[in-house]
Amino acid sequence: MEDAHRTWAEPWKIKMVEPIRMTTREEREAAIEAAGYNTFLLEADDVYIDLLTDSGTSAMSDRQWSALMLGDEAYAGSKSFYKLVDAVREVYGYEELVPTHQGRGAEHILSQILIKEGDVVPGNMYFTTTRFHQERAGGKFVDVIVDEAHDPHSLAAFKGNIDMAKLRAVVDEYGADRVPYVSFETNVNMAGGQPVSMANLREVYEYCHPLGILVMLDATRAAENAWFIKQREYGYHDQPISQILREMTSWSDGATVSSKKDNLVNIGGFLALRDPELARQARSMLVAFEGLHTYGGMSGRDMEALAAGIHEMVDTDDHIRARVGQVEYLGDKLIKAGIPVIRPIGGHGVFLDAGTILEHVPQEQFPAQALAAAIYVDSGVRGMERGIVSAGRDPQTGKNRHPALELVRLTIPRRVYTQSHMDVTAESVIKVWEHRDSIRGLRFTYEPESLRFFQARFEPVD
Ligand code: F0G
After folding, report:
1. Which helix (H) or strand (E) holds 105?
2. What would the pLDDT profile of 95-124 be if each residue is shown by its tens digit?
3. Residue range 222-242, pLDDT digits in tens
4. Is residue 376 domain-resident?
5. Structural domain count, the chain
6. Integer Cα distance of 193 and 195 in angstroms
7. What are the residues whose beta carbons fall under 8 Å from the beta carbon of 17, sequence distance 6 or more?
């Protein structure tokens, strides 16, 4: 199928459509003000092209929709659960499945069973909910990602990798006893959807395993990561994504997965493990927080659609190729127009370098938040802030964390939008870029205690 010199098109055709509403600039100005300049607080009906997230926004296939009808809603021992167990064993290679309502449910359970007060969890850049649960369990997250990840100008092929020297330094400082596991994310979201290499996965596991430190993947976007390994790492070009994914997970002791991404469903997630004893501990917590161990937080039909989605994700490489290809299509348009973006273009979205675009707005005035609001007002395209607002405050000092990356994420849902939607998005970003000097910073009018980016409200500074 693959011919690098030919244009590709989506490996699907459209059977059902969902009309979207067009709005006027005046309507959008009123909407963003009412939303406190936070794109999370907009009503979706006021959004034209919704690039807030790739989470739970995928279009399911006709096979997945028909699988819903097969859902077995038995409270205990549902047939659909066993299909899901088989899918996870076959595609990810983990024996023990602990189903949850979504990714953060799995992160909660994993953090509670592995982390003790005073423990340290090294990881390749934080993710908001993941770090929240690690800290809530009494742990301290330490970032051990390679320096290139923090540099929007670096063109390194695997900007998600763990820096072995940083990891060793953490283990030497605190001792292996206080490091229950390494939190290893594939296609690192906060770094711009940047992949980790197979060599790095192997090296981390070979270092940790003899020390008794577990390696827990956040495999939420592992299939997209596998695509980059296929493109960029020697020896993988001719392997199917399914095989690369199995090798990736073989260098780990378990994984948390938000199935709302790679797995092509609108809700669901899981914790997968190799060790039956850890799985037992997880299940005993599960019944208190998520649901019985054969459904977690999912209905029988959710588990059917998820099992089908896990297979579809890797049945052929065409899906992932088109998925990442569409993201690159948008990214390349913006690069050609001279817009500062995180490069290389990542797997699930295009990340605008808001710190550079709005050089005149200090980080304490939330440049990425202001840029996301300005793009919405221009065209009804909704992106999200991934900068100082998302980073939150240090729980010890109460001070704002200052991340090196101050970004607006334009995240592409899977199988939902056409290239024309990408063209409209690119036109809007270019227009806002041309008028960037007129964009003002923001200040808080309401700041929630935790995960503040979801519900914070702002107003423009004078
Ligand atoms: N891990 C990663 C890497 C994620 O991107 C997310 C969610 C989660 C865990 C949590 O999973 O939402 O199912 O509870 N990311 C979404 C996003 C919210 O928009 O990036 P969840």
Report:
1. helix 103-114
2. 999 999 999 999 999 999 999 999 999 999
3. 999 999 999 999 999 999 999
4. yes
5. 2
6. 7
7. none
Q: Which of 75, 116, 445, 446 is catalytic?
A: 75
Q: Kindly tell me the sign of the dihedral angle through the C-alpha atoms of 228, 229, 235, 237.
A: negative
Pocket of ligand 1 (CB under 6 A): 53, 55, 102-104, 127, 129-130, 185, 189, 218, 220, 258, 260, 269
Model pTM? 0.95
User: What's the mean pLDDT when you consider all of the chain?
Assistant: 96
Confidence band, pLDDT 50/70/90 cuts, at residue 3: low
In the reported structure, the alpha carbon of residue 258 is separated from the centroid of ligand 1 by a whole-number distance in angstroms of 6
Task: For residue 308, give both structure tokens.
Answer: 């089908």
Nearest C-alpha to atom 18 of ligand 1 is from which residue?
55
CA of 210 to the centre of ligand 1 (A): 30
Ligand 1, atom 16: closest residue by C-alpha:
55
Q: Which residue has the higher pLDDT, 68 or 3?
A: 68
pLDDT at 259: 98
Residue with tokens 């107003």: 459
Helix, strand or coil, per DSSP, at residue 37: coil
Same-domain check for residues 265 and 151: yes
Does 386 participate in catalysis according to the annotation? yes
Residue 11 included in any domain? no
Where a domain ends, among 314, 336, 351? Answer: 314
The reply to whether 351 belongs to the active site is no
- What distance in angstroms lies between residue 3's CA and the mean position of ligand 1's atoms? 33
Residues 255 and 383 reside in one and the same domain: no
